[in-house]
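Here is the promised in-class demo. Please do not try to memorize the tokens; focus on the logic of going from shape to residues.
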């Protein structure tokens, strides 16, 4: 039987199906696989199922003498040197579309939480600080209605977010490399705007671009300085699109009002990250796609992508 390796465990049903067709090895445990272990495992396997925490770089790919396919359990693929893998004849599979709604929901959950201070309220009550929220204006958030949401990147998730925001009567501007059609703008109720306009005029900015050389640290101190002092930043895309050091400074100095982050420059987030100590920073553990329904669909696609790739065929979602 052909050998495959999984860098993280999947649900029992998927594993059972995989075990019927392949010799399966799984990195178990609760921490991401080390680069050394990943490199030692990649020799001799024909299929790899990986996750955004795993770095599949040139050196790792060079060790993969028999590898036919890298099937990542994610829509993002910035953890894989895709160009190099393709040059080596290795097929790449990924999981777009199925996680669009789940990620947009999480983004909107962060938006609502920040605007209405839900998690902050939870922390306050657990610390038994009722007196701090007692007065009519002691603990107030903001209405969503009429606020301006700036969406950076109007791909699938950006569009799904726009639908949600429009149901809450928000004004929605977006910035994208390419302006979308007028018909789509009308359907979504969005207006195209320059990056400058988005950062200076939005009450909430939500990032939906992939991490590339061009987008790395797109949000930095220069941008934070131009944002409204009352504005919030939300990131459910990739941590490296934001310069985290600059963000920490902006949050500490209240250059911006707050941030909702599902992704970080280093994941898992470092134990001593200053973000964890900031009251105006809302943090979730990279759970954009974490719903039972979505994760099952992702598992199904990941498995199919792997099957196709091992057979030398094009994965159903490929690059
Ligand atoms: C993805 O699929 O890329 C999401 O970030 C979840 O990992």
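The designed amino acids, position by position:
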């Amino acid at each position: 039987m052909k050998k495959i390796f999984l860098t993280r465990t999947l649900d029992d049903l998927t594993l059972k199906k995989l075990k019927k067709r392949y010799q399966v090895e799984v990195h178990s445990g609760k921490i991401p696989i080390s680069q050394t272990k990943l490199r030692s495992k990649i020799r001799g396997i024909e299929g790899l199922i990986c996750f955004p925490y795993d770095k599949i770089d040139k050196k790792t790919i060079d060790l993969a003498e028999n590898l036919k396919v890298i099937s990542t359990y994610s829509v993002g693929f910035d953890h894989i040197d895709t160009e190099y893998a393709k040059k080596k004849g290795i097929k790449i599979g990924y999981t777009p579309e199925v996680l669009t709604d789940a990620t947009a929901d999480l983004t909107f959950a962060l938006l609502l939480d920040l605007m209405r201070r839900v998690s902050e309220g939870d922390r306050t009550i657990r610390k038994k600080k009722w007196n701090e929220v007692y007065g009519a204006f002691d603990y107030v958030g903001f209405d969503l209605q009429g606020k301006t949401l700036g969406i950076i990147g109007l791909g699938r998730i950006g569009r799904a977010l726009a639908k949600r925001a429009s149901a809450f009567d928000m004004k929605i501007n977006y910035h994208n490399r390419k302006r979308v059609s007028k018909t789509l703008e009308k359907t979504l109720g969005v207006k195209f705007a320059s990056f400058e306009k988005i950062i200076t005029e939005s009450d909430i900015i939500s990032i939906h671009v992939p991490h590339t050389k061009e987008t790395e640290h797109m949000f930095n101190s220069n941008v934070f300085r131009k944002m409204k002092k009352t504005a919030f930043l939300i990131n459910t895309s990739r941590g490296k699109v934001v310069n985290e050091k600059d963000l920490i400074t902006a949050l500490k100095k209240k250059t911006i009002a707050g941030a909702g982050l599902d992704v970080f420059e280093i994941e898992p987030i470092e134990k001593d990250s200053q973000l964890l100590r900031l009251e105006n920073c809302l943090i979730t553990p990279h759970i954009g796609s974490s719903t039972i329904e979505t994760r099952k669909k992702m598992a199904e696609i990941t498995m199919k992508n792997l099957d196709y790739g091992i057979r030398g065929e094009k994965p159903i979602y490929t690059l």
